[in-house]
């Protein structure tokens, strides 16, 4: 394919802009679709009573993983993809993967049963960041080359540059609302549930210790 046609695929008399299609897939397909396994994972945590088993530690790891992918996503929605942003995205994906391993180890070492269905859900949650990164690096191959060359002398390579074509306010508002409803609300409820149960268990243990102390006098 000649350089002038690398961004287009012809089908008869019609032409498809590959970059535009891929961008739409990321914005309206992959990103909203990410919420589905996220909610399914929360349901599995609730069904296996995370608050009574792995508790607050695992729930905090879930919050950490959401931050590790949430920050790069938020920056990508507002700023141009350049070497700096690609570095943040790659770093976030790597740290997210390491935290995911820590999370599974924490769950397995506790009394919480990680069922096959939940493990399958995890496969989606781990692969989606890499799918998004692969698409972005293909869309912005020139910026990836600059990253590999240390910025290639571009003065804007290592600073956040606002999008030249900002996303619509309607889209940003919709995604923000979806994140609140499908991520922050359920996982905030999970963390609060774990904290309350942890306090209740500690209070019960203190009461029992005091009772035994009083009885031993």
Account of the protein in words:
There is one protein chain. 73% of the residues lie in helices and 4% in strands. The protein has seven helices and two strands; from the N terminus they run E-E-H-H-H-H-H-H-H. It has a two-stranded antiparallel ribbon. Strand 1 and strand 2 form a beta hairpin. The N and C termini lie far apart (89 Å).
> How would you characterize the largest beta sheet?
2 strands, antiparallel
From the N-terminal CA to the C-terminal CA, the straight-line distance is 89 Å
Give the CA-based shape.
Answer: elongated
Gyration radius, rounded: 23 Å
Beta-strand content estimate = under 5%
> How much is the average pLDDT?
90
Q: Give the helix/strand class.
A: mainly alpha
Biggest sheet strand order reads 1-2
Runs with pLDDT <50, length 5+? 1-6
Helix content, binned percent? over 70%
Count all strands and give the number. Answer: 2
Helix-strand sequence: EEHHHHHHH
Descriptive keywords:
217 residues, disordered N terminus, mainly alpha, 73% helix, two-stranded antiparallel sheet, 2 strands
